[in-house]
Amino acid sequence: MGASGSKARGLWPFASAAGGGGPEAAVSEQALVRPRGRVVPPFVFTRRGSMFYDEDGDLAHEFYEETIITKNGQKRAKLRRVHKNLIPQGIVKLDPPRIHVDFPVILYEV
């Protein structure tokens, strides 16, 4: 719980190419460590959307439908959550881009 996706899979995109050599290796390296293999930018430009489309094309986090319940001769309206026929929103572009959660830099305001 609380682990980011890349750490949970054992991939650390901002790991050092030196392979860790103790405190003297950490001092000699720059503050921004170069990743192994392919270059991974520190920014995230897209994310997976958390909302859904229903049959009518409406976009929301949750959908409810009103059902009428008759009990002892009295009509009551009750909301029931809809789980079927929902289409995920898909990939959402972030504006402005965010800093990746695994990027090892401490941000502070002077």
Description:
This protein is mainly β and 110 residues long. It is built from two helices and seven strands. The strands form three sheets. The chain has a three-stranded antiparallel beta sheet with strand order 3-2-6, with no helix packed on it. Strand 2 and strand 3 form a beta hairpin. The longest helix has 6 residues. Pfam families: TUSC2. This is Tumor suppressor 2, mitochondrial calcium regulator. One of its GO terms (biological process) is inflammatory response. InterPro entries: FUS1 (IPR029393).
Which structural traits does this protein have?
single chain; mainly beta; two-stranded antiparallel sheet; 2 helices; FUS1
Our estimate of the beta-strand percent is 25-35%
The shape, in one word, is: elongated
First CA to last CA: what distance? 33 Å
For the largest sheet, list the strands in their spatial order. Answer: 3-2-6
Unreliable parts: 24-29
Along the chain, the helix and strand elements come as HHEEEEEEE
Biggest β-sheet, characterized? 3 strands, antiparallel
Task: Assign the structural class, choosing from mainly alpha, mainly beta, alpha/beta, alpha+beta, or little secondary structure.
Answer: mainly beta
Q: Tell me the total number of β-strands.
A: 7
Protein name: Tumor suppressor 2, mitochondrial calcium regulator
InterPro entries: FUS1 (IPR029393)
GO cellular component, one term: mitochondrion
